[in-house]
Amino acid sequence: MRTLIRSAAALAAAGLTLAPGVATAAPTPSPGAATVTKAGTSFLTATAITAGQPVQVGASTGDHLYWSFQAEAGQVHEIAATVSFPKGRTGSSTWTVDVFDGLRRRQACTAGAQTPTAAASATSVTLGCTLRRVRPWAEPWSGDPLPGTYYVRLSVTDLPEPDLGLPIDVDLLVSADGEGGTSGDDGRLAAPLVPNTRAGTLLTAEPTPEPVTEPESSLTGWLPEPGSRWVWTSVGGVLAAVAGVVGFALTRRPRRP
Question: CA-to-CA distance for 237 and 225, rounded, in angstroms?
Answer without folding.
Answer: 18
